[in-house]
Design a protein that fits this description.
four-stranded mixed beta sheet, 8 helices, 16 strands, HSP40/DNAj peptide-binding domain, 345 residues
Length: 345
């Protein structure tokens, strides 16, 4: 039965004049989506992965792509007889672009947890020819970057997070080549790499700000040829708080409800802080929206100091006033000449 011709450009979803980088990017994106390790038991995903691996194998090789563009369905004709010395002809070693394998899961994948999404670096190892094949020289793994969400209290006091990270490792079956016995490796689908999930704990230091970056040494991408792992960089995002709103530099804002008589007469009230309630004095004749400062009651800073807390007054009235309160309000209304809608000059 004749094999149905596949349009490799259509398989990868790229234009026929796509650049090498565009082809590489399209392959990595599709490989992450359909990789067998991420779709266990899904035969359709497995077949799709094989198709895109085959398409990438051709379009990422200049000579194969040239023949494919010229001959279409017959692009393989004559290739067994015209292979370059030491190349991919009968008995020749299969050449792989190790940088493609290193970058396969390099654009972030998502789906491993709600707060964590790893983005692997694109550092490809150098290599050298040996025996007609390709051997990767020792190269450090790429750095990984992602985000972690913490509460305001955790950012203030420090915290720890359990992180689940997808780690890309060379396939043990084909030793990272993507090929075995002249065919795409059945274990890794020709990618040359497999994924496993690594779980470890990361310490978030106290005083981190929204957008701060925490470096975790040796928890990035896997190295090649004996090279060490890269580093993990976590960008901290502080989750919204029901009471406090952080400012830059460790200061925080809080809104404090006060009764009308507290605003007029002044007095001492309890104010929430990140370390519990403290007593604050409200000056007499305070207007709604007035902001008072509690020095040193803000967030911890990396240098050990503290920011300030800014308390904004919000005047509230009794939701269900008693008869006595209503009578007193009427008495006040009769006695007062104050007009809240009159503009003062």
């Amino acid at each position: 039965m004749p094999v149905k011709f596949r349009d490799y450009y259509q398989t990868l979803g790229v234009a026929r004049d796509a650049t090498e980088d565009q082809i590489k990017s399209a392959y990595r994106k599709l490989a992450r989506k359909f990789h067998p390790d991420l779709n266990p038991g899904n035969k359709k995903a497995e077949e799709r992965f094989k198709e895109i691996s085959e398409a990438n194998d051709v379009l990422s090789d200049k000579e194969k792509r040239k023949r494919y563009d010229a001959l279409g369905a017959n692009w393989k004709s004559g290739m067994d007889f015209n292979a370059p010395p030491g190349g991919g002809g009968p008995g020749g070693a299969h050449r792989v672009r190790v940088e493609d394998l290193n970058d396969l899961f390099g654009g972030g994948g998502g789906g491993f947890s709600d707060f964590f999404e790893a983005i692997f670096g694109r550092q490809g190892p150098a290599g050298r020819a040996r025996g007609g094949g390709f051997e990767a020289a020792a190269a450090r793994g790429g750095d990984a970057e992602s985000e972690v969400s913490v509460s305001l209290e955790e950012a203030h006091r420090g915290a720890s997070r359990s992180v689940r990270l997808p780690i890309e490792e060379p396939c043990s079956e084909c030793h990272g080549t993507g090929r075995k016995n002249g065919r795409p490796c059945s274990v890794c689908g020709g990618a040359g790499v497999r994924n496993r999930i690594e779980t470890f704990t990361v310490n978030i230091p106290k005083g981190v700000q929204d957008g701060s970056v925490v470096r975790v040494p040796g928890k990035g991408g896997t190295g090649h040829g004996g090279g060490g792992r890269g580093d993990l960089y976590l960008r901290v995002r502080i989750a919204p708080h029901p009471q406090f709103r952080p400012r830059a530099g460790g200061d925080i804002d809080v809104e404090l409800p006060v009764a009308p008589w507290e605003a007029v007469l002044g007095g001492e009230v309890q104010v929430p802080t990140l370390d519990g309630e403290v007593t604050m004095r409200i000056p007499a004749e305070s207007q709604a929206g007035r902001t008072l400062r509690l020095k040193g009651k803000g967030m911890a800073r990396p240098d050990g100091s503290r920011g300030d807390e800014y308390v904004r007054l919000r005047i509230v009235v009794p939701p269900r006033p008693t008869e006595k309160e209503i009578a007193l309000m009427k008495e006040l209304a009769d006695a007062s000449s104050f007009d809240a809608r009159r503009t003062e000059t």
